[in-house]
Write a structure and sequence with these properties.
The protein has helices at about 1-20, 55-60. The chain has about 70 residues and is mostly helical. The radius of gyration is 40 Å and the shape is rod-shaped.
Length: about 70
């Protein structure tokens, strides 16, 4: 009787595993039909600060044609 119960349990286990593998999810990777559009509204503000030594500042004031 134990061999018959073991055979039935094995058969049930094989049947259950076959049913479980039949329901496995699939993953598909496909290219989109429409192009990807990215809208970017960017505003860039910048501020430049220059520190100059007093000696260099007076030198630049004296040489008007440098810049």
């Amino acid at each position: 009787m134990k061999k018959q119960t073991l055979g039935i349990l094995t058969l049930l286990w094989l049947t259950a595993s076959a049913l479980m593998t039949g329901c496995s999810p699939t993953v598909k990777i496909e290219a989109p039909d429409k192009p990807i559009v990215i809208n970017m509204n960017i505003k860039i503000d910048h501020e430049i600060r220059i520190k100059v030594d007093r000696e260099l500042d007076s030198l630049l004031d004296n040489k008007k044609g440098l810049f």
